Amino acid sequence: MAVPAKITDKSKKIIREIVRDTGESQISVIEHAVMAYHREWRIQKVNEAYAKLRSDQKAWSAELKERSLWEHTSEDGLDND
To answer: Are the CB atoms for 43 and 51 separated by under 8 Å?
Structure first.
């Protein structure tokens, strides 16, 4: 179900410009914008979690130990092709 949302005149102007230049529909432009924002937000959350992990010496040490174990998993004598 569609839910109407109010946007600023500045955003409307930008959407109209993109629609004019790309030929995409307004909905498509808005969906692309939401998806781009979502990707940016997710990356920010991952970066925050990574920084938190790095700041915890015990957790970071465990992470490095696990990485070290995984680095040797492909040394099984089989071709990686």
So the answer is: no
Tokens read off for 26: 């307004």
Distance CA 81, CA 73 (A): 15
pTM, full prediction: 0.69
Q: Using an 8 Å Cβ cutoff, are 53 and 63 in contact?
A: yes
56-62's contacts with Cβ under 8 Å and 24+ in sequence apart are none
17 SS3 class: helix
**Does position 63 have pLDDT exceeding 90, yes or no?**
yes
Handedness of CA 13, 15, 19, 22 (dihedral sign): positive
